[in-house]
Model the fold of this input.
Amino acid sequence: MKNIHFISALALLAAAACSPSTETSTSDGTTSDAATQEAFAVIIAGTNVGHLRVDHDGDTAVVDFDFKNNGRGPTIAETIQFDESGIPTSWSVSGNTTFGNEVEETYTLAGNEASWTDATGSDNATVDGATLYISQFASPYAAFVYARPLLADADNIMPALPAGELRLAEIETLTVNGDAGEKTVTTYALSGADLDPDYFILDSDDQLFAYVTPRFITIRNGYEGEEERLRNLAAGYGAARFEEIQSRYAHNYGVPVRIRNVRVFQPETLDMSDPVSVVINGDRIASIDAADAAGADGEVEIDGAGGSLVPGLWDMHGHMGDDDALINVLAGITSVRDMGNEIDVLEPLREKIESGALAGPRISMSGFIEGVSETNNSTGELASTEQEAVDLVNMYADRGGYHQIKIYSSVKGEWVKAMADAAHANGMRVSGHIPAYSTPDQMIEAGYDEITHINQVMLSWVLGPEDDTRTLKRITGMAMFADLDLNSDKVQRTMDLMVENNIAADPTTVIHEFGLLGRNGETRIGVRDYIDNMPVAVQRNAKVALLNVADPEEDAAYRAAFDTIIDTLAMMHERGIFLVPGTDLGGAFNLHREVELFQEFGFTPAQTLRRATYDMADYMGFGEDLGSIEPGKLADFFLVPGNPTEDIKAIKSIALVARGGTIYFPSEVYPEFGIAPFTEIPVVSGE
Done:
């Protein structure tokens, strides 16, 4: 899913506003009572993980939505009442989000007076005409709630609460087959609530048939056989949108490009150069000249206005999709290590980016391997035996392009040595979670090269051997970090093993900050520098906690736990353990915050910048082509007005990005996502 709360969820109840009757006809030629139920399967990457059920009784719909994947998932109950035009007049949502945050949301419309309470607080408005409330926590069935009034509207656009508008666009009509026979269905895009559209499908009676994303689908029972085809449609719609954006905003001038009057970050000396001009020819840096050097005939010239050029950033913990790709490039992230994805999603995406059809970072792929269990993650490839796990390692090696394997929580710890031996024999590194009932010490001895997420390192210091870290305990158990003695023998033994075996850590600090410090109603600290520029749904989501915080004692424990995480990472840095910046939150603006947090571990601003650029290129084996701005290297860099070696926050306002010599001006592109630009567009001459 695009986000953990289904912020711009979808769903309508075309029958909900029908007058009560003894019988109603259906498209299948059968009849049913006015009180009816719709039932849908919830499927992630081909695995059925839950259900969506909707009971209709006159003008009321009752929704039951629940799924579990990777040991967690939302449970949502909704009651919606409609007026005669199908607009909700009352909407209550309760339950819990994916990570257990309690949900209590209400909306009422009485005449022209609307009022609502969600995780951000309470508010009200006087509406002038038909207006749709965008639920913060609704199930995917919300598509149908929004679709019916929008279909009846002349231009398929309606004002929305708390702000903005919703827009509906028909895409195409197709046929599907299932237990109830062949159906004609129509796909739609709903936009205006969030950064990207939601895609859903209605049948010929304008009833909800499916809500679709490239890896998640809610589909009518009996038609599960169509899920992969429909998910591929969603992937195609998203790709077409981003290909069209690429065609309009990617500047390939076809001649040398001179970026004049800039200072270049020099990672080896941790300082900024004197003012210079940087010349790009094709996809590489041709020269670095004096700031006032004469330009050659035919060059395009871009005025850097005395700003700073910084090598492209790396997000070392991504899970890439079309929607992430462009946003990351606009944020100066020109390289991403994908830490687990479906092969049929990741490999075609990488090919489209490298061909120039899509804007996106350079992707280094990790082969995701999970064990079969009741709580296994549906992402990637599953193994039920050690031999199957080893075979998967070899399969990824044979495919090519996978620099490492990533081991997940349901893999059995006793399989790891054989998996690591196979990976190392194929020239691949080994990274991952700590498998359930195992310890980081055991995994280091079995052959790990890197441990993913700092909580995966720390949990064995506070949990017992009986604790199952495939469940939410791997999240909620972090509260016990508050009382952790970092000088204890068990902590120091793990630290010693990491140092002795040159084990790197991918802490994903920013997601732990979100989880442990996020509170309902408060804009979380990691987004405050940019949130005012975001669409209203993103602003609302920024005030939603990841975890449920039961009482003041638990609140204090979570806050203290995050302090312990920072102290742990500072100790690791002091001891020379190599820390890599990654997010597990889609990168982009979150990567800026991750880099900023490295200062809490003892890095200076210039050192954090080096770690996210030069050091990562070297660590990943691309130091000859990436990581610094030098003649002959690939033209991957970005321009900011300020000086990030003095204030790392300067990387958050980007005026220009070069990715392989293709130029992007973020302020041109951001309005496509409802984002207000952060800087002026540089002056370009000679086009």
Confidence is low (pLDDT under 50) at residues 1-34.
